[in-house]
Specification:
six-stranded parallel sheet, 2 domains, alpha/beta, Rossmann fold
């Protein structure tokens, strides 16, 4: 009988994994909005976030908690033993009572985030299942004000994951998350990530996230963020994104040495020839967008690209500038500047669409 039940459960798990592949995908940005709605409507159902490693799943959960003034307890389930979750039995009056671990919530409101849940061995998943299904384990009960969310990688991400039991899977709201260049650029532009990284990814978007099964390091949004710190420290970025990608990045960076001086362009004192090389076009356009600090410098950059580069590169620069300034007080000044300049009116429609996104 046990063999039959185990076989049935395995079949259900396989069917479930097939359904995971059919799930509607959410971008990282939409995931943040979705989770915000879950919190605002106080939907206490447990939630599972599926996605590739390094795309920012944990960061989104952390930002949602911070935005909603919720405490966050982030547990790496794969690093725990069953007793770490269930607690320790302590005898008293000939009865064993379970003393729960101190890291589980006892009061208030927050998010209990069980990360890497499907990397945990079945014994640990079994204890986690009690938390998720019943909101309790042993004598411990999760306070009413706490959400229980989980996250994990998929088998196609080359992660060492265990199949999730069908009864556990059926208790979750399942979300599959993807990432894209526009979303990473929005983060990068707002957080002053090195413009060499942004322009390189504009030129070679496939390197935003590319798992290399033959190397422990490979490019992802997370590793590019790490690379930014390494660049600021004048260190090689190979340990973060891998040798192959880092070699291409260094080759691209050599293009910067061929670019015209940025400062005179932003000051309106020079209009050098626009580069012929495609990688140099990406590099110059991004550098102008990133280094323009005032409305006048943005105007000079736009007028230069309009005259020397053309509409395609003007649209690219407009996107980068508007993304960087979208949440600042300068955005209204930017719109006014464009509206008052007849030469730039053709980017107004593009800017309007970007601001509405």
């Amino acid at each position: 009988m046990r063999h039959i039940l185990s076989l049935v459960n395995n079949i259900l798990s396989i069917l479930f994994l097939k359904e995971v592949k059919k799930m509607k995908k959410l971008s990282i940005k939409k995931l943040s909005s979705y989770l915000g709605s879950i919190v605002n409507h106080n939907i206490q159902s447990s939630l599972m976030i599926w996605g590739a490693p390094g795309i920012g799943k944990s960061s989104v959960v952390s930002s949602v908690a911070k935005k909603n003034n919720l405490e966050l307890i982030d547990l790496r389930i794969s690093q725990l033993a069953p007793t770490d979750l269930r607690g320790i039995p302590v005898p008293a009056n000939k009865v064993a009572s379970w003393y729960p671990p101190e890291f589980l919530p006892k009061e208030g409101k927050g998010i209990l985030f069980l990360d890497e849940i499907n990397m945990a061995p079945p014994a640990v998943q079994g204890i986690a299942q009690q938390l998720i299904l019943d909101r309790k384990v042993g004598s411990y009960r999760v306070p009413d004000g706490w959400f229980i969310w989980s996250a994990g990688n998929r088998k196609e991400d080359l992660a060492a994951v265990f199949d999730m039991p069908a009864p556990l899977a059926n208790r979750f709201i399942h979300l599959e998350v993807t990432t894209g260049l526009d979303e990473f650029k929005e983060y990068a532009l707002k957080n002053n990530v090195d413009d060499r990284i942004i322009s390189f990814l504009n030129f070679r978007p496939k390197y935003l996230h590319k798992i290399d099964k033959n190397s422990p390091s490979w490019p992802s949004p997370r590793s590019w963020d790490i690379s930014n710190s390494l660049l600021h420290a004048n260190l090689d970025i190979d340990p973060a994104i891998g040798e192959g990608c880092a070699a291409e990045f260094r080759s691209f960076c050599k293009v910067y040495k061929t670019l015209p001086d940025i400062e005179p362009i932003l000051k309106g004192k020079a209009k050098p020839k626009f580069p012929d090389d495609l990688s140099a076009k990406y590099a110059l356009t991004c550098a102008l967008a990133m280094r323009a600090k005032t409305i006048k410098e943005v105007e000079n950059a736009f007028l230069y690209i309009d005259e020397k580069g053309g509409m395609e590169w003007l649209s690219q620069c407009t996107y980068d500038v508007s993304t960087k300034w979208k949440s600042s007080k300068k955005i209204d000044q930017l719109v006014d500047m464009i509206a008052k300049n007849n030469k730039l009116m053709k980017v107004a429609e593009r800017l309007q669409k970007l601001l509405a996104a």
